Amino acid sequence: MTPGEQHERFDHLARLGRSLNALGVGVVLILPTAGEPVLEIRSASGTLLRVIVIWRSGWAFTWRPWWARMWPGDKWVEAHADNAADVIMAEVGT
């Protein structure tokens, strides 16, 4: 991952984190020294959800494991969508 890609991923996750926080959801943005940034969300039921940014004909958020992204029907939303936080909240049932 290039530094530019890592910066873009961080920007998208930080924006999503602010949007989710405005909806009253607690989030933690994890920036590992090696690897990709991750946004952690704890659902109302206590389930831990990890959101990452992937390239899918444009930047997109996904909260599925890496192996689930290989098959059609996985869960994702465009990172530039104005309602990305609302879509993720509806999908995960937090």
Describe the structure.
This protein is α+β, with helices and mostly antiparallel strands. It has helices spanning 3-22, 84-92, and strands at residues 27-30, 38-42, 48-55, 59-62, 76-78. Strands 1-2-3-4-5 form a 5-stranded antiparallel beta sheet, with helices on one face. Strand 3 (48-55) and strand 4 (59-62) form a beta hairpin. Helix 1 (3-22) packs across helix 2. The longest helix has 20 residues, at 3-22. The chain starts with a helix and ends with a helix. The model has no long low-confidence stretch (mean pLDDT 83).
Average pLDDT across residues? 83
Which outline best applies? Answer: globular
Name the helicity range: 25-40%
Task: Report Rg.
Answer: 13 Å
Supply the key terms:
single chain, 94 residues, alpha+beta, 5-stranded antiparallel sheet, 2 helices, 5 strands, 31% helix
Chart the SSEs and their pairings.
Layout (H helix, E strand, L loop, with lengths): L2 H20 L4 E4 L7 E5 L5 E8 L3 E4 L13 E3 L5 H9 L2
Helix pairs in contact: 1-2
Write a concise synopsis of the structure shown:
By secondary structure, this protein is an alpha+beta fold.
